[in-house]
Amino acid sequence: MEKIKFEEEWNELCPIYLENDNNFFQIGTGVLIDIFDSIYLLTAAHIIDEYYKSHLGHLLIPSENSFIPISGIINHKHLKNNETREDDKIDFSFFKLDDKTIRALHSIFKPLKPHQIRFNYDYTSNMTDIIKKEILTYRHPKNSSKELKNIHLIDDKENIISMNNYLIKNMIIFAGYPNTKSKTHQNIHTSEIVYYWGGSVHKKTYEQYNCNTQIQILSEFGKHKALDSNFDLRIPPKPFGISGGGIYKIIRKNNSFDRELIGIAHTYKKK
């Protein structure tokens, strides 16, 4: 029986850099989508705020040879006097990229198509299965990893189908480029996508954080460990830098699995 795993990176994700006063560093992530005969770069509004704060700075993304300024039409909600981005529970901005930027994009990037995007769905959880919930929130990561490996090792078809159905319904993935994975060596800049797997939460949790289930997406993640696509334990980096990255649900595609973009990430609550 096939387990949920992905062999390739999700190349719609793009690191975003800020260049200002001879300083150059990664500040966030963006998601490239191809809709309405145009290419858009979606990200978090607080990432764009840094561009406006820098005055003479530039937002850059990777090209084939170096980095290029993001150019095109920007849609961004500016903060009012005495307003902070924490007051903005949408925290979303996007670029409609111009032809020059599109032509210069690094060939590794593959914007998502409309069939890979879904922004109108109820992502809350009504499930109460404690064992399965532990797998997604990693409260007991060693037990979760062992259980997942065992059901595949013995080819327990009934449990594999049940577990896959549960993961498809309840798993939410936040993906992006954490700052800690951004490295520079001999003027060569590298970064790496990290995938944070978590579980959907009950409507009461949305009420607790004063969030709207039709606008916001909440997910609960583990504090210390995470599982990779082979169900092995990993210590994930702190998710700073994935702001503007994608929020995904897993879907079935013929005899395999794919992802759908369901939102844009912007806030990490440690507790």
Give the SSE layout.
Elements: E1 13-20, E2 23-35, E3 38-43, H1 45-54, E4 58-62, E5 67-69, E6 72-75, E7 93-97, H2 99-104, H3 130-137, H4 141-153, H5 157-170, E8 171-176, E9 183-185, E10 188-190, E11 194-200, H6 203-208, E12 219-220, E13 226-227, E14 233-234, E15 246-253, E16 256-264
Antiparallel strand pairs: 1-2, 1-4, 2-3, 3-7, 4-5, 6-7, 8-11, 8-15, 9-10, 11-12, 13-14, 15-16
Summarize this entry quickly:
By secondary structure, the chain is an alpha+beta fold.
What distance lies between the first and last C-alpha atoms, to the nearest angstrom?
A: 36 Å
Tell me the radius of gyration.
19 Å
Query: How much β-strand is present in the residues?
Result: 25-35%
Order of helices and strands: EEEHEEEEHHHHEEEEHEEEEE
What's the count of strands?
A: 16
The low-pLDDT segments are none
Indicate the mean pLDDT: 84
Explain the overall architecture.
With 271 residues, the chain is α+β, with helices and mostly antiparallel strands. The chain folds into two domains: 13-114, Beta Barrel (Thrombin, subunit H); 116-264, no CATH class. It has six helices and 16 strands. The strands form four sheets. Strands 5-4-1-2-3-7-6 form a seven-stranded antiparallel sheet. A five-stranded antiparallel sheet has the order 12-11-8-15-16. Strand 13 and strand 14 form a beta hairpin. The longest helix has 14 residues, at 157-170. The protein is globular. The two termini are 36 Å apart.
